C-alpha cells in the first residue's frame, strides 16, 4: 500500500468514527423518548446488505429501520438496493423511511 492509499484508509476510518459519534448521539437523543429505547449499532463493511443481515442474525434483531434514497428506477436497477436485499433476507421486519435527495 503506497502513502496515498494509506492516507485514504486513515481518512475513511476517521469519517466512519465521526459519523458513528454523530449518528449515535442523534439516535440516543431520539431513543430517550421511548419507554424501551432501541439499541443503536454502527456497522462498516464492503457489502452493506451482507453486513447488516449477518449482524441482525447474530444479535437477534426484532426490527430494522432503514432509509431509502429517491434514485429512480434506473439507479436502483444498476446499483441494486441494500434495503431491498435486507427485506428479501427475511431476517427481521424492516421499517423503511423514504428520503428525498
**Care to count the β-strands?**
2
User: Which strand order do you get reading across the main beta sheet?
Assistant: 1-2
Quaternary organisation of the protein chains: single chain
Low-confidence stretches: none
Q: What's the order of the H and E elements?
A: HHEHHE
Please tell me about this protein's structure:
- With 101 residues, the chain is mainly α.
- It contains 4 helices and 2 strands; from the N terminus they run H-H-E-H-H-E.
- A two-stranded parallel ribbon has the order 1-2.
Name its key features.
101 residues; mainly alpha; two-stranded parallel sheet; 4 helices; 56% helix; globular
Secondary structure: elements and pairs:
Layout: H1 3-31, H2 48-59, E1 64-69, H3 72-79, H4 82-89, E2 94-99
Parallel strand pairs: 1-2
In short:
With about 100 residues, this protein is mainly alpha-helical. It has helices spanning about 5-30, 50-60, 70-80, 80-90, and strands at about 65-70, 95-100.
